[in-house]
Each structure stands twice: as structure tokens, then as C-alpha cells.
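Thread: "does anyone have the structure for this chain?"

Original post by V.I.:
We have the sequence but no experimental structure in hand. Need at least a predicted one for the grant figures.
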Amino acid sequence: MIWKNAHKATVGLLLILITVLAVACSTVSSDRTPTPSITTGIHPAATPGNTQQTTVYSYHPNITIGPRRGKAGTEVTVVGGGFPAGIDVQIRLTGEDTGAPDDYIAQTEAGQHGNIQASFTMPANWPSGEPITIPRVTILASTTDFAEKATTVFVYETNVTPEVTPAAKSTPLAP
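Reply from O.Q.:
Generated one for you, C-alpha cells below.
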């Protein structure tokens, strides 16, 4: 047993063992799907002057939509992953160079593996009541605090009626 001979270990080895155990006990559980990223830094319990790699967990949300283009009234489905498990994710519509509005169009909860799915009907107007006239609408999926977010673009086809040119009158030819 490791603790039986612990008195023979140096203080440095004990600190490393305690650090490993502390990290193992405090990492995100397997029902959340964080991606580890390795950074080099000085762990608070490390021997002064020594650096070691530490693991920092971060999420990498992503979304896709179907269909990717349409007009007002189109049913749009947002599918994504990489969100923290069990967290509410809100779907918002915005322009490419504008901030996120307070109003959201759909909300869902990320599953145990961080996956989401939500559907909504593409509106003709922004929440402010103004008509949507831009050709590219950004769809934003984010946690309620915006700490985790992903975007994609919906090509918005405006309801423009094509201009009809009257047919030329034909003059019958004399026999």
C-alpha cells in the first residue's frame, strides 16, 4: 500500500501525489464533455522553481442549421454540441455586425454529452418589429451568460416579387 511507505518519500513526491489526487477528484465528471487543453504553469502545490503542465478544461460549442437558406416562415432546426451538460442554451437571431439581442427565439437544455437541438420558424421581423431585410442572418446559440456560444449564418431570402415585363404585342401578318 502506498501510504505504508509514505514516510520514506520526499516532501516533493508527496506534494506531487497530493496534487495528482486533488486534480483527479476535482475534474469535471464524465457526464460533461470538456476538451482538455494543456498549459504550462506553476501549480500552487509545486516545489518552488519547478514548472509543470496543468490541464484546463474548456468547451468548444458548435452548431449547424438546416436548411441553410430560406425566407420568412421557413422551419429552421439548430443542432449542435460542445456545450456544458444540463445548461440552458438560447437561440437568437442577429445581424453580422450587431450585438446579441435580449430576446431569444428558442431555448433548449444541453444533454448529458453537451448536445443541443431546437427548431423555430424564421420570422419576417426582428424582435423590435422592423422587417428583416439583410441577406445574412446570424444564428447565435449561447448559454444564458454568453460564456459559451456558437454561430452560423442563415441566408435570408426576402419576399421580393420579381418585376413582370409585359409581353410584346404581336401584330398578325397579313396573308
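V.I.: this helps a lot. Residues 11-33, 35-46 have pLDDT under 50 and may be disordered.
O.Q.: and The radius of gyration is 28 Å.
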